[in-house]
Specification:
By secondary structure, the protein is of the alpha/beta class. It is built from 10 helices and 9 strands.
Length: 289
């Protein structure tokens, strides 16, 4: 169970068993001066809690939406504990899946910008380029987008929006265009692997190894310093639990008139995620979505 932060007292609470209070969860990009669990552990009250615009904004929005608790990865995981960090990485998808709402905080998107403008910082936000974004976008029931000033931009799927905000339908189409995730998947919410089987393993493999664990419903121990070996272990686990043969459809690059292969080094398994940077359609090799 996740360690949650109370939005008023700024005290942690650990829930035992399966009874967890409804909570909001934060999706964001890390900056250079993030507060950590060690920074705030044991603080006596909210009066002594360090000022932080990201955490303060998240708590304020959660309180406005009627939630007593939030989960924020930077402060709710004790990263000095390798056991806790490993458990958190393997449980992350479930924590986003079980949240009542996810706040996507885009720190590099300024207030007042029109997200529909192709030149806007929304289109270029670093949030869309990180590996963890995939599960944080698909797992929660609802994802709400906010700019750097915690001004509401819109939500990923259809739903009620206040006047003056980008309509949810238009924003969903925009997010789908940026991420290349079908609108039907974005709209469904709380997705797991079975909810979008029209995408092959080869297509999902374009993100980071550990951020795929929950999406594939796989539990895998975290080993420090293993680099691409984590990807090898992930592939072995996928072969063990799945019959999707597109896991072998890797290593092709597009030329002007044909597809050529990269060196496979004598192995059926890809050496890194970059090997899955393939077109959606290679006749006879990849399931066409």
């Amino acid at each position: 169970m996740p360690r949650l932060l109370h939005v008023k007292t700024r005290q942690f609470k650990e829930f035992i068993g399966h009874t967890v209070s409804p909570y909001a969860i934060l999706s964001h990009t890390w900056g250079p001066n993030e507060l950590t669990f060690k920074d705030i552990q044991g603080l006596p009250s909210s009066d002594t809690f360090p000022k932080d615009s990201k955490i303060d904004g998240c708590c304020a929005r959660a309180l406005q939406d009627g939630y007593e608790y939030v989960w924020i990865d930077t402060i709710c995981i004790d990263k000095s504990s390798s056991a806790e960090l490993s458990e958190a990485i393997n449980s992350m998808f479930d924590w986003y899946y079980n949240s009542s709402v996810c706040y996507a905080y885009l720190s590099d998107v300024g207030p007042g910008e029109d997200p529909l403008d192709p030149g806007s910082s929304f289109h270029r936000s670093r949030w869309f380029t990180r590996g963890w974004t995939l599960q944080e976008l698909l797992a929660p029931a609802a994802v709400l987008f906010f700019d750097s000033g915690w001004n509401y931009i819109g939500r990923k799927q259809l739903g009620p929006d206040g006047s003056g905000h980008t309509s949810s339908y238009i924003l969903m189409e925009l997010v789908a265009n940026i991420t290349k995730i079908p609108t039907t998947v974005l709209q469904s919410g709380r997705c797991r692997m079975g909810r979008f089987r029209h995408q092959s393993i080869a297509e999902k493999m374009k993100t980071k190894s550990y951020s795929l664990l929950g999406l594939f419903q796989i539990n895998m121990p975290l080993l420090y310093g293993e680099g691409d070996r984590a990807f090898q272990r992930l592939q072995h686990e996928l072969i063990r639990v799945s019959d999707d043969e597109t896991i072998f459809a890797w290593g092709f690059i597009s030329t002007t008139s044909s597809y050529t292969t990269r060196s496979r080094s004598g192995s059926l398994l890809a050496s890194s995620l970059r090997d899955f940077e393939v077109p959606y359609e290679v006749s006879g090799l990849i399931i066409i979505r």
